Amino acid sequence: MVIVRAYNGLGNQMFQYALGRHLALLNGTELKIDTGAFADDPLREYELHRFKVRGSIASAAEVAHFREMEAADPQHYLRLMQKSRLFDPAILQARGEIYLHGFWQTERYFTQIRELLLDEFQLRTPPAEGAMKMAGRIEASNAVAVHVRRSDYVTNPKTTLHHGVLPLEYYQEAMRRMAGMVPDPVFFIFSDDPQWARENITPPGPAVCIEGNDASNGHEDLRLMRTCKHFIIANSSFSWWGAWLSGNPGKRVIAPLRWFAKPEIDTRDIVPPQWIRI
């Protein structure tokens, strides 16, 4: 059995699931998802159930049993903790009963199962009528998704200190470059603070600000985002997945050079090498 600890927001839960799913396949075993962390997190909730994911919820008894057995038989019961933000090939080589605890933010843990994840990260429910109309506008244009992450990045001092807030200059330069790379771009702006984005983000071309979704249904933004053809992402796992899940083989993706506020954190493996970092 592989148990993966799910915690934090939707984008992070998707990274955790992706590695857990791949490692379970490599071990020829079932995947269980430990959702216990959300009992102590009033700001987050388990969200993977909205997708066509495979893997059942680990019971408290199963998690407790693993904890007992890893003490008694540490050679066969392996608790794998993330040591850094870099890819660790030893993780994929692990065999036995496994418990995963970390963010695992690199595609190098799951590129081999990309097609499977493209399917399993489809939402179970169909889009609402308004979302279907917006998806039609996106599909009919050379759509560029622009993700502006604010919320706790701005309001929570601890989060701001860790992640930082991207300056307007990043978006201005990214949109300028994107307009020079793709013909007739239409910029679709996704943000958890749409009013701020509408007032401050000024694309060099036609633009649409996506509104109507909040933290409780951000997965609907992700559904629309992945429909876009090109991407300007934030230092956010949410828009990372929006870009990664896009099926456009010629997509251009621009990502921030600094992913975290602290420069000592090595993030070279977070952004795929074919994406542009500025």
TrEMBL record:
Gene Ontology molecular function: galactoside 2-alpha-L-fucosyltransferase activity
Pfam families in the cross-refs: Glyco_transf_11
UniProt keyword annotations, A-Z: Glycosyltransferase, Transferase
One cellular-component annotation, GO: membrane
GO biological process: carbohydrate metabolic process
Chain segments annotated as coiled-coil in the UniProt record: none
Name of the protein in question: Alpha-1,2-fucosyltransferase
Record-linked InterPro entries: Glyco_trans_11
